[in-house]
Amino acid sequence: MIKLQNVEKVYRTSAIETLALNNINLHVRKGEFVSIMGPSGCGKSTLLNIMGLLDAPSQGQVEIDGSRVERYTDKELASMRNQKLGFIFQSFHLINDLSVMDNVEIPLLYRSGSAAERRRLSQEALEKVGLSNRMKHFPKQLSGGQKQRVAIARAIVGKPEIILADEPTGNLDSAMGNEILSILQNLNQEGSTIVMVTHDDAMAKKTHRLVRLFDGTQVS
């Protein structure tokens, strides 16, 4: 599903060169729920961004669902992100001036389809995360856990095969964090492939496989 071979990421300025990822080899198979752990600054988010085609490696190969992407144009990469990938972020990234329904619809605006179809799919996604009664609310009217559930609905509204979650429980208390993890587990059981960056060892142990990074290097 996601295959990284000899992936390296170097950030360069005029004064310094920083090796963020070093010789990463990782294969996430269809239907897996994989967690990525490591200390702050070890390259977790950089790795997730490369998996999500938001950044390109300095060296190495990235393969998504059997397709090598290094020669893809920006337009082709954007299309693959929209069709195959769903993103969940720690800080939600909701638009406060839009209703819950309108926030969830955003990925569908880049696809062909009627307004009625967008509404149907958005309502279906919100029902899946238990927020069908909040469709007309605005983000400022929601709790942190509800905001994250809206973000999950937005990530799954286009029915992506892969969900990439960057610290999805990081801004939540333990009870709400467990609720969010339960939603992700249900999505995985329904067939979604999930990669989750987390600092929470208890959360990571509930996934299929744990990948540990240290100073940009894969250590397990």
TrEMBL record:
Similarity comment: family membership: Belongs to the ABC transporter superfamily.
Keyword annotations: ATP-binding, Nucleotide-binding, Translocase, Transport
Residues annotated as domain ABC transporter: 2-219
Organism: Dyadobacter sandarakinus
CDD domains linked: ABC_MJ0796_LolCDE_FtsE
InterPro entries (alphabetical): AAA+_ATPase, ABC_transporter-like_ATP-bd, ABC_transporter-like_CS, MacB-like_ATP-bd, P-loop_NTPase
SUPFAM superfamilies, per database record: P-loop containing nucleoside triphosphate hydrolases (SSF52540)
Name of the protein: ABC transporter ATP-binding protein
Transmembrane segments: none
Annotated GO MF terms: ATP binding
